Amino acid sequence: MERNVAIVTPLIPTYSETFLRAHIELLPFKMHHFYGLPKMGYHPIYDGTGVPLSSDNKWINYLETGIDTLFSENGWGYILRKKAMLKYFKKHQIKAVLAEYGPTGTYMMDACAEAQIPLLVHYHGRDAYHYKTLQRFGNKYRKMFAFADTVLPVSTDMQQQLLSLGAPPDKLILNPYGPNPNYFSFQDIVANPPVFLTVGRFTAKKAPRHTIRAFARVWSAFPEAKMIMLGDGELWEESKQLAKSLGVYDQIDFAGPRSPEQIAEAHHEVRVFIQHSVRAADGDSEGTPVAILEAMKSGLPIVATRHAGIKDVVLEGETGFLVDEGDWEGMAEAMVQLAKDPGLAAAMGKKGSARANAHYTMEQHIQRLADAIQAAIDNKKLA
Fold first, then answer.
1. What's the pLDDT band for 267 if we cut at 50, 70, 90?
2. pLDDT value at position 71?
3. What are the structural domains of the chain?
């Protein structure tokens, strides 16, 4: 019998949300994707192909969304979309719902309760830490924790955070990410030039200013050094201006967003992967950065911060170096050490690749999630 599972995301997954695309494409169920939560709220508007759930008339959907925005989360649009969601669940015999991000889980509770199907909620980062999100959803999270069958954090730090927010210990399943093996593979980097690579959006929690300051210090001591920064975001222009003011703009390639294939190629052309993640002023934090796991699998040593899930995956002094958040000078020292010692960089990278292959694979990530979904379905049958 075909196992139909609904996966709900706030929006169409962005280029950096590789984990969401993996869930949609790789879970061993018939996945039904829904998205389009206006202002991170209510029930989804569209199925994965962009077809509206409650009406084929886009103007009616605009009206529904407007009513929700103007009045309340229980407006006409909410009711109509919940009704459409329940109709879809029944027609396609949906056996479980996977909600991506905590707020999404709170919005799917009513429909899952009415349809009597299990709800699993996967947290990823911001949804567990961002101050305004916690202020808005704190009470709803506690209600959701009581209702949901399973809650999945991606790091031990996040697991502790969810416990502090009220999640029952017996419902938590730690599920760190894994890199896509179709793109990322080991290559010895001992002969690679002293080029540093960072991959990710230019946002506050990535702290690109610290990365650029650290590189400027490295370049002053080691003029052969270069850096590649892949990604974009709200701090893109500010970061370029900082590089110019520090005199290292010509040594940094602000290359913009790249495909997984292009990122994998970059891994094989550099010596060190760097990431200065911090808890942002608004509370936003990482989960377990996929970019670090991809770099480890590729054989790159890591220089990063003791932040969130990074502490779980990088072994200090063995697969890379970790510094405290904001310590860009300490980061620079570690970078110089690896720039000057390609043998050390290669040895750390080799150990990191072995660690990623043993403990942080895409297959393991998907299997844990698939087992959790199947267990929830089986438990519902027995109830």
1. very high
2. 43
3. 4-178+362-382 (3.40.50.2000), 195-359 (3.40.50.2000)
